[in-house]
Amino acid sequence: MGKACCGPGPDVERLQAEQRRALKIVLAINASTFAMMLVASLASGSVSLLSGGLDNLGDALTYGASLAVVGRPAPWKARVSLLKAALILAAAMGVAVQLAIRIGEPSAPALDTMSVAAVLNLAANVYCLRLLTPFRHGDINMASSWECSRNDVMEGVAVLLTAGAVWLTGSGWADIVVAAALLVLFLRSAMRVTRDAWAELRRA
């Protein structure tokens, strides 16, 4: 009886345990893919790989924050969502800086390294999205985590298409154009997460 009055019921506890498990897995995957994408970006000279790597780093930090507030009241989750928006924005700024540097020298990235990294990154992102999809209509904490993962899949597809475009054209401009498109995606996502988090804070 005390359990029913003072704490979450067994269904809520089970849901929270499932959320924590999913967040731990996607955190580990994103930390690993960040390291892989960073090395591949440096080896290949691809700015779109770098944007993906920075996004994975931001996501790893975001999932860690999401994990910390599972089961917490709504205002805590909304504040963490604001942190997520800030991390997405930071990744966007990192991409913008690299774009500014690369526009002056649009050399084609090393295709073999870029292609392998793009395939591995997309596979990892699809798996993460699959893990988080059952929670996408839950609280703002899990909904924003799902949005981050969905962005990762879109970014993974874009980088893979970029590798194909570089192979077809032999030019580095495809890499730059896709990185610019990802920059816009990150900015829009940061604005959407911020809007939802502020709305949740006002309701709370």
From TrEMBL:
Pfam families xrefs = Cation_efflux
Entry membrane topology: Multi-pass membrane protein
Instruction: For this entry, list what GO says about its biological process.
Output: zinc ion transport
Provide this UniProt record's keywords sorted from A to Z.
Membrane, Transmembrane, Transmembrane helix
**Main location, first listed in the record:** membrane
State the compartments where it is located: Membrane
Q: Name one GO cellular component term.
A: membrane
* Membrane spanning residue stretches: 22-43, 176-194
GO MF annotation: an example: monoatomic cation transmembrane transporter activity
Residue ranges of every copy of the Cation efflux protein transmembrane domain listed in the record? 80-201
Q: What is this protein called?
A: Cation efflux family protein
Q: What is the lineage of its organism?
A: Bacteria, Pseudomonadati, Pseudomonadota, Gammaproteobacteria, Lysobacterales
